[in-house]
Amino acid sequence: MSESDGKKPIGDPQPAPPAAKPPPPPPTPGGKPAPKHPGFVTVTVDGKELVAKPGENMVDAVKKVGSEIPYYCYHHRLSIAANCRMCLVEVSNSAKLVPACQTPMAEGMVIHTNNARVQESQRAVLEMILLNHPVDCSICDQAGECKLQDYYQVHDYRSSRLEGEKVLRSKRKVLGPTVVLDQERCIQCTRCVRFMAEVAREPQLGMFGRGSAEYIDTFPGKQLDSNYSGNTVDICPVGALLNRDFRFRARSWFLSAAPSVCTGCSRGCSTYVDFMGQDTYRYRPRENEQINKSWMCDQGRLSYKYVNQHRVAAVLLGRGEDRREATVPEALKLVAEQFKALAGTEGLAVLVSPVASNEDLLAALAFARDALGVRSVYVSGRPEGAGDHFLMTPDKNPNRRGLEWIARGLEVALKPFSELGQSINAGKVKALYAVGGEVPVDPSLVAHGFARLEYLVLQASNESAITAQAHVLLPSAVHIEDEGSFTNLDGITQRFRRAYPARADVKPHWAWVVALAQEFGFPWMQASARDVFREWGPRVAELASFDWDGAAPPLKVTRGINPLATGADGRPPGYREFGPPRVRGI
Amino acid sequence: MANADEREIEELPTDEDSELEAHLQTKRMVLNMGPSHPATHGTVRLRVELEGETIVHVDPEIGFLHRGFQKSCENVTWNQCLPYTDRLNYVSAIMNNLGFLNAVEKLVGLEIPERAQYIRVAASELHRMHDHLTCVGAIGLELGGFSAFLYAIEGRELIMDRVGELTGARLTTTFGRVGGLNRDLPDGWIDRVNRTLDKIHELLGEVDGLLTNNRIFVDRTRGTGVITAQDALDFGFTGPCLRANGINYDVRKAHPYWVYDRMDFDVPIGQNGDNYDRYLMRMEELKQSEKIIRQSLRELPAGPVIVDDWRIALPPKAEVYGTIEGVISHFKLVMEGVPVPPGEVYDCTESANGELGWYLVSDGSGRPYKVHVRAPGFAILSGMPRMVEGRMLADVIPTFDTINMIGGEVEQ
């Protein structure tokens, strides 16, 4: 790194020393050598012995001995294209450099991932890829999570040798409702094309033209309208494919990520929540071999919006003209007084939502049974929607299975929502305690029915026609504002972590329930979702063995440069004690 | 009333228990000097225990200027630490800037361009003069010689002007970047510096005439604040305070960095380890620094002032605005910092008060994992009680002056 001579190391890097002759392949008298470790393939990577499973990809395998091979087009869930040429390595049984992603490892093979010849190849490939790349980092959403940036700084770090103009192409080609393409930024790795054909099984993208005129586009007359098109944005290694929802909204450097679960349907895809301060900006799929592999659907991806918009922000008392803001103790006292009078009577009913987490439901059902004397609760939840051929399910509630388990474990019967309407109309139900504001039919119709209630206590996260009918409206947190767990339709229980704390008086359902129980005079002291699960989780047979702490997804810290969100390092101001700094995952 | 008179007479104290006749108090007096005291430079509190006017015990209490320097550095990129280093020894900020950068460059394994090395030497020596002028002037001021202070501060003011031209700031310089310097010398600067040095030379003559042979000054400083050479070594003294004891240790000579080995200068050595010798050390070092600055600016080579490696230094602006390579490098360096390889390093430079040491640990990210600074003033301040205990209270003032404690670096 001595640059004191003042000469620029422009382009012309030191000519790579004549590569050392690759060592001769191991003697193979009459066929393959006997494996050193039977059943495995033993190779040497940068001087270290690597024992790999047969068929294991070299790009992934070498990570085990601490080597790293850069790549763009390779993706472990897609077919091999070997067209980016970034992963070229030197192997003992080939005179030329070979693409690591495509080359099967042979017994006794000697692999160099980092010698002068390979480094020069990586530099040359990057220089060529960047040759026609527009000067866009400043306006590109990918900046900060772009593999062009990452690899340039490690493998190239030299100035441009381009003479003349860059090739111009379409800057903003709208491919479909979710995705917009910048053809100038594209490096033609074809990950998106392969994804649509192989994983989504809706081949809508193709590669057109040849040579430097090659470009990605939709097939003529079609658009990229698959429910899985958002995944092409995730796997695009550069800023060519961009999500139209997220575009220009945040710099990825300033976003922090928390491992979470999508609440869009009962599949429960693992996600990362990308957030800044106390706002959520997007969901990204998180690797989960059991449920969603590396993918998620566009509907789920856009389902984050309810987290930010139309939130119930304060405790409200009274209907219509009489509505006013109140303090938490005032509301709790009022509700406890009313419920004490109604407890055990026919006129009091409880409504729970399968959008709430297991911990919310455990506390709510225990409260309904022990404090309110209610042995059967009505089930609300989001209306049924469309499912599809891959991940999305028709049931849009993330935790219906969990609710069924918990009701059985706590010996509380579940009744469908339609019966509640009948009971209200018949005048049997006069007071209602609703945990969760989602309803399976048109909210305005439900609100019309709820208007007849004499007393409605509603814990809801978002404003709707129903919240207007509440006599006491308690603002509830959404899942990313607290820890907890969901059980998906296949009975897989997943933990999610908190991204950021809820604002002001907003509390998770379980916290409202526990506070109410304390007002009732119950000695409930649960201070966290964890405490709630410890208290009642063991009573539910299916959840009894769930390792609540152990199942928490790790806060993944990426190796090497690990940017903290400047200023707040991911934690909102005033919440410095709130867990370790969050860093971006995947 | 007769009764009352009688009572008064009866109750008159006898000679033995009269307040007037009571023995002198045997309790020691505890005196707080500071944290806001006209004769303490920084915001430091000295808890002085006196028996009469003799000091029994001194307990310096620091922490009033603690800013969490070391921890703050862990949250910013390597280059973003520089403004924090300005606030260590704020009287010679450039020496902190460049000392820190030298340690980072050692950790990276980087050799900076020769021109940058020369400029670093000149800028450091300029600020050494700045520091010593402040110290010498303040000694005079606090011992009652206001004129000497004014001459010294006039010289300091001239240096501040030159530093302002060089770095854009008079005090918090934030000068230099990993790999070299953030800017080259301004036009005509060398000439102005030489003229400034001429003027300071003249002013120093005045200060010298006012103080060095002044009867009052000599009486207050000679033989006061004495520390033995062994004690000074044991406490970890460095810089002028150590050399006043006759120990020849100067990082510039012992472990030359940048181009100090090409510079022709002497390191003054004292012999008594008292306030007067420490004052003389600084007066002589001022002259030597002047020599070094003149030489380095005379021999200044042409060339770049920062390495041309886009992993370390920002690309030229034309490349940033015009090429994708430049803009990528700029983004990565600004957002994520210089990727210093994992490892640890100790490196030191000779700052105005002594050995300014840095212990840095990197985990390979763009931010320091650990920054520890060995501030020379800390060791010297901890040795101060040894210098004044058993002496008169008035000795505290010249002693505290000549050790030149700077709150910013001692309390970090």
Number of helices of chain B: 17
Indicate the low-confidence ranges of chain B by residue numbers: none
| Biggest sheet layout of chain B | 3 strands, antiparallel
CATH C-level category of the largest domain in chain B: Mainly Alpha
**Helix coverage percent of chain A:** 10-25%
Q: Which protein chains make the most extensive interface, counting residues with beta carbons within 8 Å of the other chain's beta carbons?
A: A-B, 34 and 37 residues
**Helical region count of chain A?**
14
Per CATH, the architecture of the largest domain in chain A is 3-Layer(aba) Sandwich
Indicate the radius of gyration of chain A in whole angstroms: 29 Å
The general outline of chain A is elongated
- Shape descriptor of chain B reads globular
> Based on helices, strands and strand pairing, what is the structural class of chain B?
mainly alpha
CATH topology of the largest domain in chain A: Rossmann fold
Count of discrete domains of chain A: 3
Helical fraction of chain B equals 40-55%
Distance between the termini of chain A: 32 Å
Order of helical and strand elements of chain B: HEEEHHHHHHHHHHHHHEEEHHH
Name the CATH architecture of the largest domain in chain B.
Orthogonal Bundle
List the helices and strands and how they pair.
The complex is a heterodimer of chains A (586) and B (412).
Chain A: E1 41-45, E2 48-52, H1 58-61, E3 88-91, E4 98-99, E5 110-112, H2 116-131, H3 147-156, E6 173-174, E7 179-181, H4 191-198, E8 205-208, E9 215-218, H5 230-235, E10 241-243, E11 256-261, E12 270-276, E13 279-285, H6 298-302, H7 305-308, E14 316-317, E15 324-325, H8 328-342, E16 348-352, H9 358-370, E17 376-379, H10 400-409, E18 413-415, H11 417-425, E19 431-435, H12 443-450, E20 455-460, E21 472-475, E22 484-487, E23 493-496, H13 509-520, H14 529-536
Helix pairs in contact in A: 2-3, 8-13, 9-10, 9-13, 9-14
Chain B: H1 2-11, E1 29-33, E2 45-51, E3 54-61, H2 69-73, H3 82-86, H4 93-108, H5 114-142, H6 146-167, H7 189-211, H8 215-221, H9 229-235, H10 240-243, H11 251-254, H12 275-298, H13 317-322, H14 324-336, E4 343-351, E5 354-362, E6 368-374, H15 376-388, H16 396-403, H17 407-411
Helix pairs in contact in B: 4-5, 5-6, 5-12, 5-16, 6-7, 7-12, 12-16, 15-16
